[in-house]
TrEMBL record:
InterPro entries named in the record: Fe-S_Maturation_MIP18, FSCA_dom_sf, MIP18-like
Protein name: MIP18 family-like domain-containing protein
Domain MIP18 family-like intervals: 5-78
Database matches in Pfam families: FeS_assembly_P
Stored Gene3D superfamilies: Fe-S cluster assembly (FSCA)
Length: 240
């Protein structure tokens, strides 16, 4: 007998806060789920009443998308609570509408969320890439080897469990950007990184990663304060 609740949460593990590049399940944004026969309701919440409707809509769309992939699910109802645009987001995401259809009064509605999604994908790419590069350097791989390494070479590297996880997460984001370059480590635009510009490039990627980690810690704190949740006592390691 299948465990429907477990399967739903496994799909929700794939839904990330676009700004923080962390799963909603880890952030505490998923409140609970209800399953009636083959219909699923996902109740989620955000750190503040005024969290950006754009960000919230991306999360709601992804909840709808991933949970709907389960073969036994006939209907998914997304239920964002305690938010200034709950009604528009819940109705739009549950009915499969685009952001522009639900928020037609916004000046940039014609762009929908595609441009915003790509912006956050690039930030996540930098953050994941920086972590992987640091790990590769620790294992003794030189900067020149890193920037000239082919994708197949990266795939074949015998890394530790931590390194393997960092590699998989980075390649996942690289695939989402539709990269086709033979080089494993490039800019988000698939440009080769020069050895002269390597340190500056890595510094920029590190700053992006630190900003995202700080924001994640801050959002957890806001959520815990808003809903009187026990503190995770998590300290974000801002490693330089």
């Amino acid at each position: 007998m299948i465990n429907k609740e477990k399967q739903v949460y496994e799909m929700l593990d794939k839904v990330y806060d676009p700004e923080l590049d962390q799963p909603l399940t880890e952030l505490g944004f998923i409140d609970h789920i209800n399953i009636q026969n083959n219909e699923v309701e996902v109740i989620f919440r955000l750190p503040t009443y005024w969290c950006s409707p754009n960000f919230a809509y991306i999360m709601a769309e992804d909840i709808q998308k991933y949970v709907s992939e389960l073969p036994w699910v006939n209907q998914v109802k997304v239920n964002l609570v305690d938010h200034c645009a709950s009604d528009e987001i819940n109705q739009g995401a549950s009915e499969g509408k685009r952001f522009s259809e639900s928020f037609s009064g916004l000046s940039d509605q014609d762009r929908d969320l595609d441009e915003l999604r790509r912006t956050f994908q690039i930030k996540a790419y930098y953050a994941r890439q920086e972590k992987l590069i640091k790990h590769l350097i620790k294992t003794g791989i030189s900067k020149s080897e890193i920037i000239s390494m082919p994708v197949q070479g990266l795939l074949a590297l015998p890394l530790s469990a931590e390194g393997q996880s960092l590699k998989e997460r980075y390649l996942e984001k690289k695939e989402s950007l539709n990269h086709s370059s033979a080089y494993a480590i490039t800019t988000p635009e698939e440009e080769v990184i020069s050895i002269e510009g390597f340190d500056d490039y890595l510094l920029g990627a590190r700053r992006t990663r630190l900003s995202m980690e700080f924001n994640g810690h801050y959002c957890r704190g806001l959520l815990e304060a808003r809903y009187d949740l026990p503190s995770t006592n998590e300290t974000v390691a801002l490693k330089r």
